[in-house]
Amino acid sequence: MSVIILGIESSCDETAAAVSCDGRTILSDIVASQADEHRKFGGVVPELASRRHCENILSTVDSALSAAGVTLADIDAVAVTYAPGLIGALLVGTSFAKGLSMASGKPLVPVHHIAGHIASNYIAHAELEPPYLCLVASGGHTMIVCVKGYTEYEVVARTHDDAAGEAFDKCARVLGFPYPGGVHIDKAARRGDPRAYKLPMPHVEGNDLDFSFSGLKTAVINMVHNASQKGETIDADSLAASFEYTAARILTDKTIEAAKRFGYKKIAFAGGVSANTGVRTMLGKACAKHGFDFYVPPLSLCGDNGSMIACQGYYDFMAGKRADESLNALATLTLG
Q1: Rounded to two decimals, what is the model's pTM?
Q2: Cα separation of 183 and 305, whole Å?
Q3: CA pseudo-torsion sign 232, 178, 332, 87
Q4: Which domain, by its residues, includes 109?
């Protein structure tokens, strides 16, 4: 018998809900985006995001159920992102899911946001099964994860400061691109010369697989500010291309080294940065060169969405993971 999961995601500025059948088959995927509203502020305003989640979540969940052609009676469990993310935003989704679970009598399944991003590859690639290595690069997180099972993870590398997605957004802002900046860096990089500006590739003491993007971000900001003070012109497209190339080198080199070190032949890529053309192309070519299988979700599943929560919720549900009305949202929580 098929298992139907309703997934709810509200960790940042996307109110999302989706329905999955046996995890990998998505019956509906509804996203209420707030990007246009936050653009005027140059980034996500947490209180505003929380308010919009409150306004959007009921209609988003209703639309997901309707589009899937199911009712609450057909659902086997309600899965929800409870950590990590913006605490106010998470509280909206978690509170709604708890109420829905209590009212319907359906089990409540708490899902880690990063586990959801990893699961996006299961939706796109029917053949992908653990174990494998996954590079996760999203707005607030950059890490390399040994995916040992559908609910078993070991983080072997993480960022010491800025995440890759944060660096993309902050560099985009100083270059004059609107929020969200990642897509504009991507477009500009296609027009620019990636060798035009020499940028640093930071080294992290302790674990050479760990990441640091603060120095790279600061180098770009300083270049722009120094040029402005001297009355010089910066080639924004080429600086964007140089930044993207350097970030891609850092992400690719460390991921390939991790795969060699831990003996993995399959590499997946997930999170918002996995939508970037330069990074996914460089990592894909490196995997091909070393004989590794490479998996990356389509652009529609790179950002925050309900499908990835419904998918991971299925595997958590099958593993017996449950929560009750005491479930609380958490702004930070280590994967695994």
Answers
A1: 0.96
A2: 17
A3: positive
A4: 4-118+302-318
